[in-house]
Automatic annotation (TrEMBL):
It holds the Pfam family GalKase_gal_bdg. It comes from Glycine max (Soybean). Residues 144-204 form the GHMP kinase N-terminal domain. Belongs to the GHMP kinase family. GalK subfamily. This is Galactokinase N-terminal domain-containing protein. GO terms for biological process: galactose metabolic process. Residues 38-86 form the Galactokinase N-terminal domain. GO terms for molecular function: ATP binding; galactokinase activity. Keywords: ATP-binding, Kinase, Nucleotide-binding, Transferase.
Amino acid sequence: MAKHEELPIPINNNLEPVYGGGSALEEAQLRFDNLKSKFVEIFGHHPQIFARSPGRVNLIGEHIDYEGYSVLPMAIRQDTIVAIRKNEAEKVLKIANVNGEKYSLCTYPADPLQEIDLKNHKWGHYFICGYKGFHDYAKLKGVNVGEPVGLEVLVDGTVPTGSGLSSSAAFVCSSTIAIMAAFDVNFPKKELAQVTCDCERHIGTHLVGWISNLCHGQDWVCRLIDFTQSCTDVHFL
């Protein structure tokens, strides 16, 4: 049997496998319905797909992972959802946020080779990290994704920013997964973890919160990460 990290990113046609049942499922359904309605309001049609990545908390070793020391992280309930749709009529990336008052619409050329303007920080830069990282890795793997096309994107995040819960990592991970799915590609979790780890370096930071991506879908599991050796799952009963 393949290890968890060797499996592809799971694809679901309902929310229960991700959010469980009861009030959590009801809240999630309302949130996704709102996201879909907002997408139609902004772009005029429904999204092609949704992608999700949770934040993460380090039970042991907060922030020392950036220096290569061992940590014990696990995924949390708060997450980032990215709704996405291809737009082959124009080669523009349009990135909107459900909180439009705080995060204004960002537009970029549909060019995987574009450089990120680090002197002019925009929240949409994190999406471009995933965009560039996906195209770089697809090229490395010999996966033909065709000519660049436009993408319409709407983001909804509940991971508190600036709290050490990997809000930027959740954004980059969910963006990369969404782009990957939009192009009908699905890399194994272990490969995607490394891709997203490399992605945020485009914006000048080290993305270690990708670890949460490996934990996604495993209830009551945290992961001991030893950067000099390997990963070990720790299960809570």
